[in-house]
Automatic annotation (TrEMBL):
Example GO biological process: proteolysis
Annotated catalytic residues: N2
GO cellular component: cytoplasm
InterPro entries, per database record: Calpain_cysteine_protease, Papain-like_cys_pep_sf, Peptidase_C2_calpain_cat
Pfam families given in the database record: Peptidase_C2
Domain Calpain catalytic positions: 1-58
PROSITE patterns linked to this entry: CALPAIN_CAT (PS50203)
GO molecular function term, any single one: calcium-dependent cysteine-type endopeptidase activity
Protein name: Calpain catalytic domain-containing protein
Top-level lineage group: Eukaryota
Length: 314
């Protein structure tokens, strides 16, 4: 079925196909109305459709909707929403690209880089979804508690082309969604939680580690410094292909204070690019604590982009 309710397949087995067996036509209830409902041969379907979406209808579920703004990781803050589930719930959380004039036109508007992060009250990444599409859905089940939703785009250009998105939450039990103050630090901690969940960790020695997450054409790099000394991390992504950097650079040098973490950068695929390659080198150096205690970043990032302090590291 065409969800827009109009325009139909005109080839074999279309509504007015003259070769319909009468009994089969009656059984399949083929209609000549332009209602968006039609049959077509399976063999020809892949030539016209790249994906199939099944609309999940849950009777008596609860719904909440919020409006959000895409952000530029280097200058603005990702939208955040508090979620209270006093009874626990099965949840369907969706982000829709609002498109041109709050209406997405699949014929005119390209797909958009979208993400959803669901954090528990203790900062654990309960669920994560990222894809390049006009909408994404995160399906999960949560116990009673308070949660945090971060929604938006990892692409540094989406906020200029498509400034707005719609967040929709459906739940099997009553819940409340409300606007939540966001910050660079919160965003850094959220993506650190995503990296911890991905469980791709490289120990660089001396209490310093780098963590990465990589899916559907995006790549994130986080540094954990659990030592009592400042570390200088040098990152080189110049061998990467068809990606954009949240730091607007492919070579970065960051000094990360003791017992702090930093979201180094997020790389997303360029619009209309499918051949994406990530190639990087990273090296760390522990610095003299008497001379290096403050953060220093090249290129510059907001100081709030540093994540939480690691407590009880030793």
């Amino acid at each position: 079925r065409n969800p827009w309710g109009e325009k139909e397949w005109k080839g074999a087995v279309h509504d007015n196909w003259t070769k319909w067996p009468k009994a089969l036509r009656n059984k399949l209830t083929a209609s000549s109305a332009n209602d968006g409902v039609f049959w077509m041969p399976w063999e020809q379907m892949p030539s016209f459709f790249s994906s199939v979406t099944i609309c999940k209808v849950n009777a008596n579920w609860h719904e909440a909707r919020k409006r959000g703004q895409f952000s530029d990781f280097s200058s603005t803050i990702t939208s955040a929403y508090g979620l209270e589930c006093p009874y626990g719930a099965e949840l369907e959380i969706e982000v829709f690209n609002a498109g041109d004039g709050n209406y997405y036109n699949r014929l005119k508007d390209p797909d958009v880089d979208l993400f959803l992060i669901l954090l528990s009250s203790n900062g654990y990444c309960r669920a994560y979804k990222h894809d390049v599409d006009y909408y994404i859905t995160l399906s999960t089940v949560v116990p009673p508690g308070r949660y945090l939703i971060l929604a938006g785009s990892m692409s540094v250009v989406n906020y200029m082309v498509y400034p707005a998105f719609n967040l929709v939450v459906h739940g099997s039990q009553p819940f409340v969604v409300h606007d939540q103050p966001s910050s660079y630090e919160l965003v850094a901690d959220a993506f650190h939680a995503v990296a911890v969940r991905a469980n791709n960790r490289q120990d660089m020695g001396g209490g310093v580690s780098i963590l990465t997450f990589d899916d559907n054409g995006n790549f994130g790099l986080v540094c954990e410094n659990k030592s009592n000394r400042t570390v200088r991390l040098s990152s080189n992504f110049q061998g990467s292909k068809n990606v954009l950097s949240s730091r607007h650079a492919f070579q970065m040098v960051d000094t990360i204070p003791a017992r702090k973490q930093q979201l180094i950068a997020i790389f997303t695929r360029k619009m209309f690019s499918n051949d994406v390659q990530i190639a990087y080198q990273a090296s760390g150096e522990l610095l003299d604590p008497d001379h290096y205690t403050r953060a220093k970043n090249n290129p510059h990032i907001p100081p709030q982009a540093y994540g939480k302090i690691f407590e009880n590291c030793f």
